[in-house]
Prior knowledge:
By secondary structure, this protein is an alpha+beta fold.
Amino acid sequence: MVDATGGGALVVERRHPGIGLGFDVHRFGAPGPLRLGGIVIDHPVGLLGHSDADALCHAVADAVLGAAGLGDLGEHFPSSDERWRGASSLRILELVAALLPPLGLVVAGADATVVAEQPRLAPHRSAMILAIRTALSLPEGALSIKVKSSDGFGIIGGTEGVAALAVATVVRETAS
Ligand code: MG
């Protein structure tokens, strides 16, 4: 990058805390149950995907990767790689989290919204929080998940699938 004076190159150091944004969507079409937010939910249909198609875990993982400046899920776990066929997305989250300590980074917190017209996810919210929090080694209160319907319209307005959005914050780990 060249500075305004046209002089030497500027070194832009990444600033922390870093904030990452994740989004994912998967279509219904697999046999049930539904795997979402790291838990198994009794539902007649599941989501289609290369791994276990857990859109919420994938959105959170992408948010963490983005916050750490580590690219995206597709780079680390490509769908062309047979190792990740049917893979547990909680395991993927654990592997993502393991990338941070060698860089001196730690996930400070994350927040996610799941958009699904069905099934009703509110009763499963706390179990999903616990599963994802455990995979990321996050303390209690460091992760929140909201569940929303889309009022019957929009790209996920019917029975087509599930969408998830997430943000995560990554900070530099300090010696305690
Ligand atoms: Mg995905």
